[in-house]
Amino acid sequence: MAKSESAVTGAAATGTVEDLQRDAAEGESRRRRGGWPAVGALAAGTFTVVTSEMLPVGLLTPIGRDLGVSDGTAGLTVTVTGVVAALAAPVLTLLIGRRDRRTVLAALMGTLTVANLLAVYAPNVAVLLVARVLVGLGMGGVWAIASGLAVRLVPERRVAAATSLIFSGVAAASVLGVPAGALVGELGGWRAAFAAMAGVCTVVLVALVVLLPPLPAPGAVRLGGVLGLLRRPPLRTGLVLVALLVAGHFSAYTYVRPVLETVAGARPGQVGTVLLAFGVAGLAGNFLAGAGAARAPRATLLAICAVLTAAVLLVPPMGHAAGVLGAAALVAVWGLAYGGVSVSTQTWLMAAAPDAREAASALFVAVFNAAIALGALIGGLAADGWGTGGVIGLGGGLAAGALLAAALGRSPGRGAAATG
Length: 420
Fold this sequence. Notes:
This protein is mainly alpha-helical. The chain has one domain (36-419): MFS general substrate transporter like domains (Growth Hormone, Chain: A). The protein contains 19 helices and no strands. It has helices spanning 2-33, 35-54, 60-67, 71-74, 76-95, 101-120, 125-146, 150-153, 159-188, 190-211, 223-228, 233-253, 256-263, 268-295, 297-338, 341-352, 357-386, 388-408, 414-419. The protein is globular. The N and C termini lie far apart (58 Å).
């Protein structure tokens, strides 16, 4: 009996030691993860890449005037960036192999710095487009890597909140980046806006190096693994939603300045204020959608699609009837809906491929940016051929298509399907 009690006591002691060792290991793991400061650095990274990408939106008219091109041609500065980012996301994900993700992110942010500096000194639209190619390279890589890193930086129960924070950089780019760029463009010219962006990129580069922990890749992403994900119906549905929502948004939003000037009589200074309202609403939409998508992805995306469709289509009649204030109110509703697109579709795709997050992120970024490019391109054709009414009708129609896809497509996982 005594021997048995001694054995039990010894086992308990051993268990206690093992528990202490496990606790110590978990504590060290949390410290090495980087935690919320690292998540904040990634949010700054998404803010920077999206602001760099979308900077021409608030500067479209002065860029076209200075370089002697039409609004549709100036819109190519957005189109080319999206095309390159769409190609760069999966290709760079394959090429970086097992390289430390912190090092890769820093190198890509340095590329963005160089790209914005080149735009400052662009003497014509051709050189500006070269700069925008570099922006596409940096953006595609940063977004593909950063969007799936939350799971490696915070405990599992905090991943949804961390993902929302990372994607808040997208909405913050609309709140702060694009309006600030438009303001700087008004005060110092569009080149000054690109110079300021180069400075922001440098600051974020330093933050990534200092705040991110080492992030060695758990394994190299292979082409077969990326393409194999396309056999999963929920993931295909998610990519269709991304394509339709983003193409619809950008076909209209890329030309929102000419639309506001034409249908609502907005002055240049008022455009920046309207874009600010869009961004503030988008930031709120990001966190609302992040919380909703974690519980019911289909229901969240159905609501986003419906609101986005209605808001886009109603901007012209509201602008004609109520002027700038009426148009601004609907643009804010538009922002609320679109602000939730990135985090909700990313949540959908991560749930559809929990075993291949980085590969799914690469597909997400590729489709997202291809849709940006396609939206800006077809929006430019609509703007040049049909005017502002054509741009708005195109954007609203694509958003309505996304609503249909969300209703009929397959949700990821039983719980999502049941709740969504």
